[in-house]
């Protein structure tokens, strides 16, 4: 059986291009909040946008970052099938975390992972959000919430999806852990700031 590689490549490229749209940077500039890369941790994600004090811009960043992953997944599935949809999700994650036009320095991927999971298998996406919210409410540490949700996501992807979906989600989770490597070090040392803190960390 021959595999047509081109649709898979197109899905990966589509995901990367959509994922690399720096909504956090665009929205903070538009709102007159300056360059988000010079604030807090310097990344372009919603958590760092929140450090500007503008909750509406942060919320808009969160939604748009999720959508820039969900849309290419849905488009790829419609035109090229489920395998292409999974590759689009991986591409979107890489695009968000390593956008070529920002020197490969982007966000940490939490919102993008949420959007990808909701588009690939919505029950897994909802469970991810629930786990994140439970940890956030009890421990008050954003990074711990994201890491816990990401660590459990491949298991639920297997239960509610397939082995291929579980492997895809595992790739996303590993990338998210890599992007949070500095946070992990602070968690281990007990210096990770809690939600609402204005320290220069994320």
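^ structure tokens above, recovered residues below v
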């Amino acid at each position: 059986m021959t595999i047509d590689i081109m649709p898979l490549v197109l899905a990966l490229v589509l995901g990367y291009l959509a994922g690399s749209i720096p909504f956090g940077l665009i929205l903070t500039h538009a709102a007159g909040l300056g360059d988000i890369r010079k604030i807090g941790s310097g990344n372009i994600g919603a958590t760092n946008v929140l450090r500007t004090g503008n909750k509406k811009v942060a919320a808009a960043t969160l939604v748009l970052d999720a959508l820039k992953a969900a849309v290419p997944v849905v488009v790829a599935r419609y035109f090229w099938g489920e395998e292409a949809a999974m590759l689009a999700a991986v591409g979107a994650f890489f695009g968000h975390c390593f956008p070529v036009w920002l020197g490969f320095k982007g966000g940490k991927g939490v919102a993008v992972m949420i959007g990808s999971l909701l588009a690939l298998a919505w029950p897994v996406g909802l469970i991810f959000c629930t786990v994140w919210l439970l940890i956030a409410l009890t421990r008050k540490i954003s990074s711990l919430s994201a890491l816990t949700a990401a660590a459990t996501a491949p298991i639920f992807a297997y239960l509610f999806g397939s082995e291929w979906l579980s492997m895809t989600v595992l790739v996303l989770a590993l990338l998210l852990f890599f992007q949070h490597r500095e946070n992990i070090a602070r968690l281990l040392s007990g210096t990770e700031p809690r939600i609402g803190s204005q320290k220069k960390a994320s």
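The radius of gyration is 16 Å.
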